[in-house]
Design goal:
mainly alpha
Length: 83
């Protein structure tokens, strides 16, 4: 649609640059940049929990502790929607 607007605008003397295409392109870049930013924040929040999980796995000395850890991990994955 922006291209069509720019083509029609090129018939007007003062319309020298493809303003509509530039505006739409800038909007798309901003939307995609925001999406990447949000996904990066979500990844970092999950990675921050990793050292604690590794430490808990290493400290499992018996079957009861391992079962408690598995239940806790299952609760965390159910909360985040990961299966």
């Amino acid at each position: 649609m922006a291209l069509i607007f720019d083509l029609i605008g090129s018939c007007i003397d003062w319309y020298t640059l493809p303003f509509a295409s530039m505006l739409v392109t800038a909007a798309i870049v901003l939307i995609e940049g925001r999406s990447v930013w949000e996904n990066e924040k979500a990844k970092k929040s999950q990675v921050a929990k990793l050292p604690d999980a590794i430490r808990a796995i290493i400290q499992c000395a018996d079957a009861k502790t391992a079962e408690q850890l598995l239940n806790k991990l299952k609760e965390v994955t159910d909360e985040t929607g990961t299966k």
